[in-house]
TrEMBL record:
This is FAR1 domain-containing protein. It comes from the Eukaryota. It comes from Lentinula guzmanii.
Length: 135
């Protein structure tokens, strides 16, 4: 939809630039001890007068980013002490940019299918800044 339509239909967040959005997203990751990964980037096709320019979707790292499915068959059915990282988490952030507007609009589906905070920390990557500080 257009900028005005999206504002009225679920795109309730806004940022002045992509840098502002990335800062906000990093804050969410730190606050809830989660990690987001880029899922896909879309541009409108076949329309001369596009209502939006770019739509980027980020998903929780505990969910699937839609990569290639491997056909690996497990040889043994062992129980593991550490549970699997993937939990089919429905959490996602959608960010859209529009022609004639410097502002970005976003939709944040913040529902998770797994625990947040310290319980989720073992499934997230250590940020580069923290890794350097530890060294």
């Amino acid at each position: 939809g257009s900028f005005e339509w999206d504002q009225m239909h679920g795109y309730t967040l806004s940022w002045e630039s992509m840098i502002d959005f990335e800062d906000w997203m990093k804050g969410e990751e730190r606050k809830h001890c989660i990690e987001f990964r880029r899922h896909k980037s879309e541009t409108p096709t076949g329309s001369r007068d596009a209502l939006w320019m770019c739509k980027i979707t980020f998903v929780c790292a505990r969910g699937s980013t839609g990569g290639r499915k491997e056909k690996y068959q497990r040889k043994f059915d062992w129980d593991r002490k550490i549970e699997r990282k993937f939990a089919q988490c429905p959490c996602r952030i959608v960010v859209k940019s529009y022609p004639g507007h410097s502002e970005l609009l976003g939709h944040y589906g913040s529902e998770h299918s797994h625990a947040l905070g310290e319980e989720n920390a073992r499934f997230t990557q250590i940020p580069k800044e923290s890794r350097h500080a530890i060294e």
